[in-house]
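Inverse folding, one chain.
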């Protein structure tokens, strides 16, 4: 088995994402296995810290539940994640399959076994149902269970659901039931879609459904 760095952060909520980035930055600062300066296109720690500051500022602004502020937070998170994913390519190259070196980076690792399975892309889940939660700003999301899915990702959108740029990651869950969206602004309509994820990656999106948040 070969250890590889996990570069997909969609399963992490905002708090866990900040904790993980903080750990990565601390682990790489002064790391003798990966001394700076790093060659392009790998971003420097200074660039990562700057992007992290932008994200944290956007996160704090989004706590008002303003839709535009949430979109800015999501955009800043995507930009920061992109820098980390680019850096990982350099870290894996330098580590040259040295697992202890990769563990020192603060990133999580996965181990790819010699493929004996032939996992296929998951079909779109069916039976998407949306229900208002017990508290204001909550929406309970459910879909029929997908055989072979290890987790499920939900996205939300406002405006035209046919415009891909309107969609943003909402949560990742290990269950197809009781996926709870929180802190949505009241008196606004949101579209929701869900897809399954397995060892082959992300599957196809469900047909979207809409609901008015109260």
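Residues assigned per position:
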């Amino acid at each position: 088995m070969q250890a590889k760095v996990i570069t997909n952060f969609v399963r992490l909520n905002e708090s866990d994402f900040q904790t993980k980035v903080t750990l990565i930055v601390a682990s790489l600062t002064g790391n003798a296995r990966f001394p700076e300066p790093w060659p392009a296109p790998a971003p420097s720690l200074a660039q990562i810290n700057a992007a992290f500051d932008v994200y944290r500022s956007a996160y704090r602004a989004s706590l008002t539940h303003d839709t535009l502020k949430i979109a800015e937070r999501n955009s800043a998170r995507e930009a920061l994640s992109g820098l980390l994913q680019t850096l990982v390519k350099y870290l894996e190259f330098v580590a040259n399959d040295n697992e202890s070196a990769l563990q020192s980076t603060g990133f999580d690792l996965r181990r790819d076994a010699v493929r004996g399975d032939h996992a296929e892309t998951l079909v779109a889940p069916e039976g998407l149902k949306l229900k208002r939660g017990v508290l204001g700003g909550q929406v309970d999301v459910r879909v029929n269970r997908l055989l072979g899915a290890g987790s499920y990702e939900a996205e939300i959108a406002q405006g035209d659901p046919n415009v891909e740029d309107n969609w943003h990651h909402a949560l990742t869950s290990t269950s197809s039931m009781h996926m709870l969206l929180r802190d949505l602004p009241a008196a606004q309509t949101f579209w929701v879609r869900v897809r399954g994820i397995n060892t082959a990656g992300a599957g196809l999106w469900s047909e979207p459904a809409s609901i008015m948040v109260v």
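The chain has a mean pLDDT of 89. The beta strands are 2-5, 109-112, 129-132, 139-142, 151-157, 167-173, 179-181, 189-198, 201-202, 209-212.
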